Amino acid sequence: MNSLIQWLTGPAIEIMAMANDTAAVIRREQRYRDVPAVEPSAGLIAEVLLDGSFSLLVNLLVGVPESQQVRHGHQELLAMRDFLQRKGWFDEPAGYHQTPPSLRAPQLTPRRKFGLTGAIDYIELVFESEYEPHVGEPGRERWLSHDDNGTAVAYVMRHEDSDRPWFVCTHGFGMGQPSVNIVGMRAKWLFEELGLNVLMPVLPLHGPRSGTRFSGGGLLQPEFANVLHLFAQAVWDIRRMVGWIRSQSDAPVGLYGISLGGYTVSLASAFIDDLACVVAGIPAVDFTSLARDNEPLAYQAYGGDLQTDWGLVQQVMFPISPLSFEPRLPVERRFIYAGVADRVARPDQARALWRHWGKPEIEWMSSGHVLASLKGDVKPFIRRIAGQYLFEGRTAAFATGETDSNEGRAQGNDALEGVSGRTPSRAGD
Q1: Which of 45, 244, 331, 368 could form a disulfide with 103 if both were Cys (CB 3.0 to 4.6 A apart)?
Q2: Helical (H) or strand (E) element with 17
């Protein structure tokens, strides 16, 4: 009965939080230092409400876990802290990440999806991930019991000529199905108009790798050990995919991710050499703060030893935090974009990454979270990065008009003159 009451009262509290966030936008509140003030508009207020609705929907789908599961998750977290301490991985977090074997012969299957803009052809790349948590690591057996998750999947769109640059585009929470990734990552635009090869990894526990009723649902359980395994496996899989690309081409490779994908590529950039660029879009980089900000309010009804120990969570997340590592590429090849009104991965997440990365160029958009990657500001930002770093020393397809649309050519000309409305922040600013 208590769980039912908590589940029913949660939405009302969430709606109150949405109203408070909307009021903050209307008041032009500047909640975060080094983040531009919000300029209210009807569209931006709608985006704030959409962000809140997304969080509310996720909370309703997750429901309220049983107290026994919450208690087990806490005990497992304590065991994980002890395990990491014994291994010395709080001092040397890179040791937690295992070196994957080469990916030599993945299964490649041509696929076609039909959408509002017509048919989209892509290749489904499938291989056995071979990732396993460390022997003796808490939660290992449960993680390995996710049968579908053991098969790694990616969606590939590549040109016939082998010298095109590659953009490895990693999706956010709740995504993972081909049509959702292709639209959400603007893969068709990247492929057809910018002329890039595109590879879209599917995160563990998402899309066809998910065993729950919605993509990514396995991440929202009280067992926080799952979070370590998810990001460790995601980096492991991406390292293998980048190796596969490089086994057949010397073309530049860049990483791009949105939301949880931004977290993933920020972390992966610390383990992959010679990247052309890394772009973190609306990134979440502090999982503890992200989880606390979006914790289902019904969870908070638990008291005593069932309350989430966020200090313990923060400590255990250290070996998989992007803020624990330095990317293996210079500051000028690191890029961030974020929404000043983001109510899912709040602006302090992108700001933390910006500071940790040495204050690289960052694009603050008048945007929330859910629609951010589809905003018009993103296209010229990505276009300029692609022209300067992915097509470095080469002729970009969009610069010659070989694959560009009229809209794309107009945006390309704008990019040459500087991106309108951009608020770049560089080291030393």
Answers
A1: 244
A2: helix 2-26
CA 62 centroid distance within chain: 20
Token digits of residue 239: 């390292």
Q: What is the CATH number of domain 2-417?
A: 3.40.50.1820
Residue with tokens 């008048």: 366
- By three-state DSSP, how is residue 343 classified? coil
3-state secondary structure of 108: strand
Place of tokens 């569209």: 43
Alpha-carbon distances of 57 from 54, 129, 214, rounded to whole Å = 5, 31, 11
CA distance 368 to 360: 21
pTM of the prediction?
0.85
Q: Whole-angstrom Cα distance, residue 39 to residue 30?
A: 10
Q: Which residue has the higher pLDDT, 422 or 208?
A: 208
Kindly report the number of other CB atoms within 10 A of residue 234's CB atom. Answer: 29
Alpha helix segments (H runs only) across 186-284? 187-192, 225-246, 260-268
Structural contact between residues 123 and 155, judged by C-beta atoms closer than 8 angstroms? yes
Residue spans of the domains in the chain: they are 2-417
How far is CA 219 from each of CA 57, 131, 214, 226, rounded to the nearest angstrom? 15, 17, 11, 7
C-alpha span between 51 and 56 (Å, rounded): 9
Burial class (CB in 10 A: 0-12, 13-18, 19+), 108: exposed
**Residue in the block written with tokens 């969870």:** 299
Residues with Cβ within 8 Å of residue 9, at least 6 apart in sequence: 297, 298, 301
Task: Give the C-alpha separation, 165 to 158, whole Å.
Answer: 10
Q: pLDDT tens, 167-224?
A: 999 999 999 999 999 999 999 999 999 999 999 999 999 999 998 878 888 888 878 9
